[in-house]
Amino acid sequence: MTMGFQFKLFLFFCLSSQSLAFSFGRDSREKKREYTESLRTFLVTIDRSLSEAQTQKVSPATVTKLSKLYQELSAKVSPQRKADLESALVQLANVGSVQDGDRQIRRLRSLVIEAFRVVTVPSQTPNYQDGEGLYKEYCEACHGGGGVGDGKLTQNKRFPMVPAPTNVAMLAESGTRTVFGIYNLLLVGIEGSMEPYDVLLKDEERWDLAFYLMAQPFSKKWGPVMDPRKLVASLSGSEQELLANVGGTLDKIANMTDIEILAQIKLKRPQIEKKDLERLIVSLRRGKSFLADTPRS
Question: Would you state the pLDDT for residue 240?
Fold first, then answer.
């Protein structure tokens, strides 16, 4: 065997090894991407189910979809977590009332977040103005200035958009969605309607946009928002007491629905006027809140 042939053989094995390593790396990245997409879709489906559970029992079709998504992810879960999740899905399938369905969906959501160690909060305080700019750049053409789905691209009668853009204003106004839920929706998109923004937008931009969208139901109605510290003081006379119930941290603001926030405030102030409740929520969603623990970099 000549030296030249040995060298060529050595070079062949080196290149083959590199090619194989690259292939394995690509497969690993693809599997990770698929896993992340399945997890986010699971969370989005839970979020939609929570909205459904406000007015009716969770449908068998929804339970079947949740169970299927869970099966795609179950290999990554510890035996104890797996038992808890499977028990929650069984109980959800056998709920006897709307109230039970709502409670079981919330329990399932908490278990999923714990089991898969999902990060449910932005790494820095969201910027409302940046979110507004992102909406105008990426969303307004379809969803319209008011978010009702009447953007410029929907006006062409010869080539109508099918399906029509989601009414994001109504989605936010339902009071059953969280900022974290909207963030997940931006990550996975809506099949046949909205492309995912998992690559186009940076992580902090998705959070900026999600917080902006969730502030919209009352923003235009009430205009400029009072500083929340002044508003809390004027509502309760005890800022710290109300803060303890509302949340006041970025984590809770991102993960509580408007209905949950309203309920927490009303526990302390049953006679509070609706306009003050709405204005407080907008202040929280706009990020003008008690978020000193996570400053914007």
Answer: 47
